[in-house]
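pasting for ref
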Amino acid sequence: MGRVRQWCGKPFVIGTTSVLLLAAAAAAYWFQPWKLWQDETVHEAAPTATARTLATGNLISHEHTTSGAVRVLQLPDGSRTLRLEGLDTSNGPDVKVLLSDAPVKQGRAGWHVFDDGAHISLGSLKGNKGDQNYALPKDLDLDRYTSVSIWCDRFDVSFGASPLART
């Protein structure tokens, strides 16, 4: 017991232990692993019953299992909204909803492409489950932005994505 106390009291051991504890704390902050077990469900109503559907799609899985439908709606006042319906994906740190000009690819080939070309963030994902609405910029060209990604900005990876098919 005396030898252990002597060894643990050495500056090298104290310094190494301190560095390891700081590294573990920084890794926990960066990766936020607890979010894998925390669901955030959002149930926003569709903007209006008289909205016209401009584009639709269905999410496919990339880095995380992801499903749900995507619709671009034009409201009577001319504004447009991206609507996620029945979204089911993982929670994570710094997850955004991106519109992109990148094509949606199956598997690992599609994980990292959505911020390579033209893309626009619609903001943070409101919840990893449920129905939610995101206002689109007035000057957004839907012919240019042809896909949606649930995008983890911290790790530059798509959780899931959908092509937008014009209706």
